[in-house]
């Protein structure tokens, strides 16, 4: 290692103060703090990485290693380069002994620090880390997946620090606790767990943290991906954790006794535990009058019933149960289906698949083109299919109503799960009629009753029944009546509202 040091020293005598690029590694893991932390060893870790810079200041025998696109260049110039470039060797030690310069003798910590936006300063066989993290990031904008008419319009971003500030801005309390964890053997993704001490159930917090620490995976990129690793039932179609991009929604969950997980690099924040009915609640419900919020929420549950059953009922009735069709409508239906060569179940599946193709195309294409494809494609294909005798007018109405109803559900993840359920119910209705449809619905209810979220009931407050919580399920009662936190969170501090009625 002494030979390496002499070679590097002779090389540094020939270089000026311009940054030198070193090409870098597969990062070798090391936890031995006695291992050499010379400049050569650290640069060896970053072999073949052209985005890692090595800057040398020969006059004071200082070497600086950093990643340019991970740092704030203004802060780097002001607090690191300017002081070090205008100092004599004898005056260097007092600068490096300041609190913002953190001395480290752990090679692994130094490498991780450089990768995390810190500057490593080498001087006299000592290494100092200086935090100047400041990469380019997206500004706070409005959420595109959780739009509201009234209320705040800011949304989480891909930067965990920004997301924490959005939460702290709303919760000015020292009882808001933050735990920092890492997930991913390769990506080392940082996850912040947030809860309010004195409100959150610490058993649930411990369980949540334990599940995160138990994740063994190479990489985690997003909150939606992360939530699937801690699910109670990973093979279920239903999401067991609520995902939100709205700070106000996240804070309402915190105050309600729930736990948040902020994944660095993702705008999706995970809330736990979650009940099935939480996916039908929107921030708009609380920003409008209670009567309007109640009507809107009930409309969502009606939309849920329509989207999973409307097309299936059409298939069941037209295949097996003509006696259920009103006499005034049966002639119209017979005329509409007289030219259709397919049985109702095939006809319905073709149209549902076509709708899903249009939906997916509209989502993947640029916004303006996607809207055009969705509107024009739906009208043209539907009209052409009827004229060609491939489907009936009434089925077009049923499929369109089901598709529109699915958009009423605030949670995109839940909406996608419900769309898949619709296909299963259509097949059951085509095989066994109303019996198959009811059997499918019964299976869904039984499955929901068996699900849990972080060990708590997924169908709370229905199973087990907690009558006090019903005031914020199908209806949104006035705030004077919403005095307690949900029983699902198992908090000892259940009182949240002391308003006079």
UniProtKB/TrEMBL annotation:
Top-level division of the source organism's lineage: Bacteria
InterPro entries documented for this protein: Spore_Ger (IPR004995), UPF0353/GerABKA_families (IPR050768)
Transmembrane segments: 298-320, 370-388, 394-413, 425-448
One Pfam family, short name: GerA
Key words of the record: Membrane, Transmembrane, Transmembrane helix
Family: Belongs to the GerABKA family.
Entry protein name: Spore germination protein A1
Originating organism: Paenibacillus allorhizoplanae
């Amino acid at each position: 290692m002494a030979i390496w040091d002499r070679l590097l020293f002779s090389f540094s005598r020939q270089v000026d103060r311009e940054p030198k690029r070193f090409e870098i590694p597969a990062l070798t893991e090391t936890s031995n703090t006695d291992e050499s932390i010379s400049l050569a060893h650290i640069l060896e870790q970053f072999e073949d990485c052209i985005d890692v810079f090595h800057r040398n200041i020969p006059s004071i025998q200082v070497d600086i290693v950093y990643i340019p696109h991970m740092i704030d260049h203004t802060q780097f110039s002001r607090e690191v380069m300017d002081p070090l470039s205008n100092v004599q060797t004898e005056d260097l030690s007092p600068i490096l002994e300041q609190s913002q310069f953190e001395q480290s003798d752990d090679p692994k910590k130094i490498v991780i620090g450089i990768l995390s936006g810190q500057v490593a300063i080498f001087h006299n066989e000592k290494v100092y880390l200086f935090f100047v993290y400041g990469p380019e990031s997206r500004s706070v904008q409005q959420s595109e997946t959780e739009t509201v008419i009234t209320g705040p319009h800011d949304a989480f971003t891909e930067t965990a620090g920004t997301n924490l500030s959005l939460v702290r801005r709303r919760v000015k309390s020292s009882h808001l606790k933050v735990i920092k964890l890492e997930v991913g053997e390769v990506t080392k993704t940082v996850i912040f767990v947030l809860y309010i001490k004195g409100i959150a159930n610490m058993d649930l917090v411990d369980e949540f943290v334990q599940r995160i620490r138990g994740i063994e995976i190479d990489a985690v990129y997003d909150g939606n991906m992360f939530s699937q690793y801690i699910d109670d039932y990973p093979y279920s179609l239903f999401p067991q954790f609520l995902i939100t991009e709205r700070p106000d929604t996240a804070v309402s969950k915190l105050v309600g006794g729930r736990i948040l997980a902020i994944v660095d690099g993702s705008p999706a924040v995970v809330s736990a535990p979650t009940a099935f009915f939480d996916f039908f609640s929107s921030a708009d419900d609380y920003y409008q009058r209670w009567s309007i919020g109640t009507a809107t929420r009930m409309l969502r549950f009606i939309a849920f019933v329509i989207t999973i059953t409307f097309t299936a009922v059409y298939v069941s009735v037209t295949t097996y149960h003509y006696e259920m069709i009103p006499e005034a409508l049966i002639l119209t239906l017979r005329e509409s289906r007289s030219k259709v060569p397919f049985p109702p179940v095939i006809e319905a599946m073709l149209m549902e698949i076509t709708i899903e193709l249009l939906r997916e195309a509209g989502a993947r294409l640029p916004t303006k083109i996607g809207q055009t494809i969705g509107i024009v494609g739906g009208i043209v294909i539907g009209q052409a299919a009827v004229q060609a005798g491939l489907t009936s007018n009434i089925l077009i109405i049923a499929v369109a109503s089901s598709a529109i109803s699915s958009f009423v559900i605030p949670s995109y993840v839940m909406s996608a799960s419900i769309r898949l359920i619709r296909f299963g119910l259509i097949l059951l209705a085509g095989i066994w009629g109303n019996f198959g449809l009811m059997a499918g619905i019964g299976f869904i209810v039984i499955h929901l009753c068996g699900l849990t979220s972080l060990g708590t009931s997924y169908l709370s407050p229905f199973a087990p029944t907690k009558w006090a919580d019903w005031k914020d399920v199908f209806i949104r009662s006035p705030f004077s009546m919403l005095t307690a936190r949900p029983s699902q969170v198992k908090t000892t501090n259940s009182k949240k509202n002391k308003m006079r009625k």
